[in-house]
Amino acid sequence: MSLTATEYKYVELDEKNAPIITGTTMKVVELMTSVKAYSLNPEELLESYPHLTLSKIYSALAYYWDHKQELDADMQRRFEYAEKLRLEAGESPLAKKLRAQGLIK
After folding, report:
1. Contact 19, 5 (CB under 8 A)
2. What CA–CA distances, in Å, run from 49 to 59, 72, 87?
3. pLDDT tens digits for the chain (105 residues)?
4. Which of 66, 69, 56, 47 is nearest to 27 (CA)?
5. Cβ(48)–Cβ(34) under 8 Å?
6. Which of 12, 37, 9, 41 is nearest to 26 (CA)?
7. Residue 76 — φ and ψ, nearest 5°?
8. What is the pLDDT, as a whole number, of residue 2?
9. Cα angle 7, 14, 59; round to 5
């Protein structure tokens, strides 16, 4: 994989120009999804992702805040794509069975 350095010590761009955390395959948007979904602070992110360091987390957070509009748009596209796939897939056989038994709504 070819990586391009950025001005952020622990953030590089992959071949698709997606920012990833140096030394990992984790994208900055993946880290930010945890921040947005669970309101995790940097120390809690470290507990959730022990393969990272606080330095890498803070670098990724700084990258996000400096590129917020672009990354928020990327996260929205990802959500819309996942939602489209969910709707296309329809209800799973397990969900149908549980619904028929009145175990879920």
Report:
1. no
2. 15, 21, 30
3. 788 999 999 999 999 999 999 999 999 999 999 999 999 999 999 999 999 999 999 999 999 999 999 999 999 999 999 999 989 999 999 998 999 998 888
4. 56
5. yes
6. 12
7. -65, -40
8. 85
9. 35
Query: SS3 string of the chain?
Result: CCCEECCCCCEEECCCCCEEECCCCCEHHHHHHHHHHHCCCHHHHHHHCCCCCHHHHHHHHHHHHHCHHHHHHHHHHHHHHHHHHHHHHCCCHHHHHHHHCCCCC
Structure tokens at 31: 């880290």
| pTM, entire model | 0.81
